[in-house]
Amino acid sequence: MRAIGQTIFGGPEVLQAFVDVPEPEPGPRDLVVRVHATATNPVDTKVRRGASPGSPVPSPPLILGWDASGVVTAVGGDVEHFRVGDEVYFAGNVARPGSYAEYVAVDERIVAHRPKTLSHSDAAAIPLTALTAWEALVENMGVTPTDRSSEHARTLLVVGGAGGVGSMAIQIARQVCGLRVVATASREESAAWCRKLGADAVIDHTKPLLGQLRRSATTASTSCSTPSSRRRTCRRCSRSCGRSATSAGSSPRAVRSTSVRCSASAVTSPSSTCSPALFAAAPSRQGAILARVADLLDQGVLLGTRTTTMAWDQVQAAHRLLESGRSVGKTVLEIVP
Predict the structure, then answer these.
(1) Cα–Cα distance between 221 and 240 in angstroms, integer?
(2) 142: left (phi over 0), alpha (psi -120 to 50) or beta
(3) How far apart are CA 230 and CA 186, in angstroms?
(4) pTM of the predicted model as reported, rounded to 2 decimal places
(5) What domains lie within the chain, and their CATH numbers?
(6) Which among 120, 222, 246, 304 is placed 20 to 30 Å from 172, CA to CA?
(7) Contact between residue 104 and residue 92 where contact means Cβ atoms under 8 Å apart
(8) pLDDT for res 139
C-alpha cells in the first residue's frame, strides 16, 4: 500500500509522498480500515521533528497520523462489535503505524461508528480533539454533562478557542455541559469561528485576560487552555477564578517513550499527569466517548470542525499551516485511492 512516511526527523520536507509499505494484518482485537480521510494534529508535527533534526527514525519509515475515518476491510478473530463494511472513525495509537496511509490496523475498542450525517472528511476532523476536550472537562475537571437548556451557573474560559481542541471544548462545554463559555482569540477570523461554535463571549488572549474577564462581568469557575505556552496565563486566571485543565503538546521524546497512545494535545490536570483517555489504559472508554460524540453530531448538538481540506500529497503544506499558528479549526487530508 501507499503511505506518507519519513526516514529522518526534521521539518515538513522530510515527509515523503509516497512510500510503499505492506498492508497491515489484523491482530485478535483489530480492525483493518481503508482510510478515506485523516486529520493533522500538533502531535504529528512534534513527532515528525523528533529530538535531533536529521537523525534517523527508528524502524523506518515512520508513518504519522492518528485521526481517521474509513471503512472496515478485515477484522481479527476476537472482534465483537464491528464487521467488514462498517464505516468508522477513531484516534489511533501512537505506538503503531499511523493513518497517513491507505490502510491502518486499529484496536476495535478505540473505534466508533462514523457519524451518519458527516462525510469521511468531516468525521476525520473530530476524534482526537473530541476525546481531549471531553476528558479535560468531564473526566479531569468533573464537569457533569447536563441538559443544555439549563441555566449556565458556571463559566469556562477556553484559551485559544479557534484551535482544534478549543473548537470542541467550546461546543462540549456549552451544548453538553451547560456552561457559559468565554473563548479567547486574537484575530477577527478566529473570533468569528468561536462565536459560530457557541462561545458566549470572545476576548483577546494577547492582552491581559483577567481585566477583560472582569470588564465582561464574568467569573470563570473553571479554565481550559490549549497550547502549553499559555499555561502561566491559565494558572493566573485559575488562581483568581477556579480550576484549570491545560492541553499541552507532548514532546516527541515523551510520546515515543510510551507504549501507549498519546494525543495531539495531552490533557493535563494541575498536577501535570496525563489524562487516561489519551492513552490506551482504558480503550473501551475511548470508543464509548466517540460513540456519544457521534450521536451528538448526528443530532446537530455538535458541529463539525473541518475548515481546510487538502489531498494527502499536500501533507507538507498542511504541516506548515498547522505550525503557522494561524489555522482555524481542523485541516483534513483526503486519502485518494
Answers:
(1) 9
(2) left
(3) 14
(4) 0.85
(5) 2-127+281-334 (3.90.180.10), 129-278 (3.40.50.720)
(6) 120
(7) yes
(8) 81
